[in-house]
Amino acid sequence: MSATATPASTPESAAPALPAAGSSFYTAMRLLPKERREAMYAVYAFCRAVDDVADDGGTRAVRQVELDRWRADIDALYAGRPAPRVRDLVEPVRRFGLKREDFQAVIDGMAMDAVEDIVAPDAETLDLYCDRVASAVGRLSVRIFGMPEADGIRLAWHQGRALQLTNILRDIDEDAERGRLYLPREKLQAIGLADPTPVEAISHPRIGEVCASLAREAEDHYQATWEIIRRSPRKATKAARLMAAAYHLYLKSVLARGWAMPRARVKPGKLALLGVVLRHGLL
């Protein structure tokens, strides 16, 4: 897609993006009361727009300029001068006390992909990336859900990392096709890969060791997520519970599939997903 044709280049005339019907996110958000659901859709539309810039927004220079425009629009929103493309955020910000720094963190996370392709980041950089693109969204979300502040922030910290590490493990082949590799440098070095290309890394016969180690980190974050959820009000954690349970199915699916080439893209079975909805969506 050319820079002039990207959705982020003409956001003022575009309809707000909505999550795909049937997706885990869509199902989880449908559980919320109307005003909270609409607030989450507004946050989703913002995240989708800046993600489109990072992935398909034209040249790197164009992407940087467009992300800077988004930064300016968020600043203007909090200064009481919202641009047309962020007006749907005015009421959520006012009603739920959403923080400017969390929106800016999301943009900063997208910039990490836009400025250059991420390839084998060190563990600290990977954690920063997960915080920006996932846990920052979680911090916005838990305020909309109505979580108590301290546990809400803890939940966002752990659940964001759990979900993002799951995405990384699920998408290693697709990311490599884009020239990206999110597996941490230290784990790759442990199997003898000092400076691999994404394709070299994911084709290595011991790549399963790296992925299994990262999966254990994700599992630790899922366990911490559930500990927080269990001690929190059920009404405020319904959407978070469904998201955690659904994404955990993806993690279990990639582990069951294994890492030998060729790797089929995994998707949990419909009955398993239905069970998650029935267990966490109706209780």
UniProtKB/TrEMBL annotation:
Record-listed E.C. numbers: 2.5.1.103
User: From which domain of life does this come?
Assistant: Bacteria
Q: Which PROSITE patterns match?
A: SQUALEN_PHYTOEN_SYN_1 (PS01044)
A Pfam family found in this protein is: SQS_PSY
Keywords from the UniProt entry: Transferase
Q: Which InterPro entries does this chain map to? A: Isoprenoid_synthase_dom_sf (IPR008949), SQ_synth_HpnD-like (IPR017828), Squ/phyt_synthse (IPR002060), Squalene/phytoene_synthase_CS (IPR019845), Trans_IPPS_bact-type (IPR044843), Trans_IPPS_HH (IPR033904)
- GO MF term list: transferase activity
Q: State the protein's name.
A: Presqualene diphosphate synthase HpnD
Q: Which gene encodes it?
A: hpnD
